[in-house]
Amino acid sequence: MKKISQYRLITYVSLLFATFYNFSFFKNFFLAYSFHGINIVYFFSVFFTLFLFISFVLSLLSSRYYVKPFLIILLIVSSFTAYFMDTYNIVIDREMIRNVLETNFNESLDLFSFQLVLYVIFLGILPSFFVYKTNIDYGTFKKESFRKIKTLILLLLIIIVTLFSTSKFYTSFFREHKTLKYYANPTYWMFAIVNYTKKTYFTGKLVVKKTGDDALIDEPPTQRKELIMMVVGEATRADRFSLNGYERETNPLLKKEDVYNFSNMSSCGTSTAYSVPCMFSKFTRKTYDHKKGITNENLLDVLKHTKDVNILWRDNNSDSKGVALRVKYEDYKSDKLNTICENGECRDEGMLVGLDDFIKNSGNNDVFIILHQMGNHGPAYYKRYPKRFEKFKPVCKTNQLEKCTKEEITNAYDNAILHTDYFLSQVINFLKPYSNKYDTAMFYMSDHGESLGENGMYLHGMPYFMAPKEQTHVASLMWFGDGMKKQLDLNKLNSIKNNNLSQDNLFHTILGLFEVQTDEYDKKLDILSTVRKEEK
Prior knowledge:
The chain is α/β, with parallel strands linked by helices. Helices cover 43% and strands 10% of the residues.
């Protein structure tokens, strides 16, 4: 094979990227610009500019010492990113990378498909083989340096000329369609990895700051203790709860219970990795970030500081995302602890087994139990419920949602909602006998929502500013035992349950339920503060 320079190889690979790896980029481009008239010229201009920009970035980062492995890694990774962007219309930003890295093996298997294999073979392995077999003419260090500078200057000049030749279009394009950059493959995921690495690993020594170490529960010994169960849902949209007006009966059991449904609850993020630590933190969505999450104690720590609350986190999802690092934690994703498993799927109701012993051993302390559901984890919604909950048919029985009809996806998702309805009713029935001894309550809140094909978008994890409401409007409700009800003005609660609420309220509402006194408590963010009766 004839020898070529590394920059010519980069040019070939960049053209390959622009042509075959950016279907999602151009699909979203055509949602904004129809393919006729002057827009055809704009399309070719954008394609050419994208090709030039990829060439510039790869030429800048390449070196004679690693150009081949560098390009091969980009091709392999980009074959995966192209598949997920093309299939689910997601973007690969910093939080999506965090989400991917915190996904366990079983969740990853749910995303495996034959189509993914084809993407990796034709967009990953075969081009990588071409790169590997290419004979590169490496010059001296001086010659290679001159080639790099010449290439970069030439590319930059052509990019500038291209942008200025249609400056009116590009001025509008960059101002009105900022979100398109998220779909550029491979340049945006490369930037996202650098951003993730910088924000995660180069933040200096991490010191966890105390939160609420002044916390105390000042109540007479004769007062009844609280037993509160917090259920953290997974990917449950508010608009799929019949309690919120959904035309299908997806909450047949909960509607029989005296629950208080919060119809306008917003999430902190659009992924489990972001929302869960955010909702348990003292920060609001606007002030929270990952670094604050890992360098500040959370709600569980504040309760632990009181020395009067026994805490247990049981997890049937990936993990607690760092929330339960300093409290008792039990993994219920396998049959080692979970006694209700079938075909490799462990059910949420298995987390209820054995809780009586934990409560019994809590002595005269309050009890806070958190159950982290598998819930509606996608894309294999059909795996999230036992066969007897398959009420809505036909169902999508593949993780390749684009191959299913809208009806099939909806049916599978709604069946999983039915199972969550059953699980929450089981939690309530578990608590009812304890209402004779404890002031009992259940608080359910999903971590984020889910896209089910609206505007060609699936799953979750979009950047919050561009996320559809399906990913941020989440299901949430509360149930109270008789003792707890006596402490609340239920008429007032009914009047506020449709207010605009968010996961910002969780931290302070739980502190209020346990009657914790601490400077961290903000009465304004406690959902129940205005309905709690004054003690006589």
